[in-house]
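Running log. JK asked me to keep both predictions on one page so they can be read side by side. First protein, sequence followed by its tokens:
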Amino acid sequence: MTADLTSTATFDLTVLSQAAAAYRGQRGTRPSAEILVNALLQAEKSAKQQRLTYPFESLLGKWQLCFATGTKKVRERGGIVLGKGLYVPKFITIHVSFNATLEQDSDRGEIANQVEYGPVLLKLTGPVQYFNKKNLLAFDFNHMLISLFGRVVYNRPTHFGKVKTEDFYNQPIAKLPFFGFFLVTEDFIAARGRGGGLAFWIRET
């Protein structure tokens, strides 16, 4: 079932909309971390129950990270659980952007992850491949740019990418980092990472 980005599905989007508006400074107060995590888990559950799928085109653009949770190992349970989560402090700006290739009907493109802290900017880029039926976006970083006070001080390929660019599309997703998107709207998106944490981005305005 392809998701209708203009509908509200079966869960309440109020908490997520409130979080997005408050983070932008438009109106209202931020929901607590606990309330926001519960809303994200509810959205994830609803997406699974409805077997929603989102097209790659709906992810294209630039998104600002608003909120994220970590995970922690639980020895007695033999697994991991979500951390409490936190809003990204306003003195740090973290963006992720997705661009498609020029090929028509392609689920391949590029990811850029950018962190700005005062005069320092760190930007990582690399290829992506989107698996529409599972809403999974596999990615890898193979290039790094660092600038200081607007001046580029480092701009070259990285050595910590999982695979070479030419081999990326031949790799099984199990060997690559990925996001599993469970909510995509015009205003915000949410996903679970390979490590189990949740992330909530708002569209750059």
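And the second, directly underneath as requested:
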Amino acid sequence: MRNASIPSLNWLRVFEAAARHQSFAKAGKELNMSAAAVSQQVLALETHLGRPLFQRTANKVIPTPDASDFLPTVQVSLGTIESKAAALFGKQRVEQVTLLSSQLMAMSWLPRVIAEFEADNPSIRVSLIMEGSQRDVDIDLRICFGEEPQLATHPSWLMGLSHVVMGRKEDIERIEGLDDILQFRLFDVASHAMGWTALLNHNFGPLKGVSLKLDVVDTTPLALMMVSQGLGLAIGHLPVCGPLATSLGLQVSPTVPKTRGSGNYYLERVAGRPPKAAIPMLEQALQNAAQSDMRSGSL
């Protein structure tokens, strides 16, 4: 199509308003133009197209059949242009913050907190990256984990953790003591400092002559997924894995008390990154959510 055959965008805007209102005066009021200016723009479009678009009467203008047929196409086209322009060139700029966390954090605790934060701060978007990701991105903030005692007083301390025994409801209801636990396949996460042997020794005393049905897996999400299928029991860490466990229908066994772990999560800003107003806001939201969940013993 030759460019000369495409009508002026302004003519089309005026035509659309006039046809919708069936009035040059009302169209002019909407577009902040006089009725005479609207009439001139419509006449220019009619001249360009080579046929009249309105029947003009004393009180209103009536679109011709050709104009009525043309109107929906004009409205869809103008709407598409306006929507795309707003998406690409809107005045509100979204500030992006990239957050790095462990797989467990990313798959369990963080999504809800981030969703609530973005709902309260629509001009901020949090991009969540899991540790070990191959994506080449610049990180603004990371959630770190360590077992050093002083981390509990770290200025950006986020949360501690408590070890619990997790399983399906029907399996948890069968557990009344240590002997019942020993009947299950027990999923141990290779990287965790406190596994089944340490947890049971802590709560039931030294296990002498006891054989555990241990199955070592790589991650807590994998252990919980296996448990959700009735394959055994796993050690969970509250509050961080609470949302994932809940989504899988898992429960905490009251037979084994919550056992405080030595590890702590804390926030660390990445050196050399430009300052962003959104970073301290996100830090505060994460800390508030963590404190709330630790008080409630969230699962």
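Observation for JK regarding the second prediction: The first strand starts at residue 54 and ends at 56.
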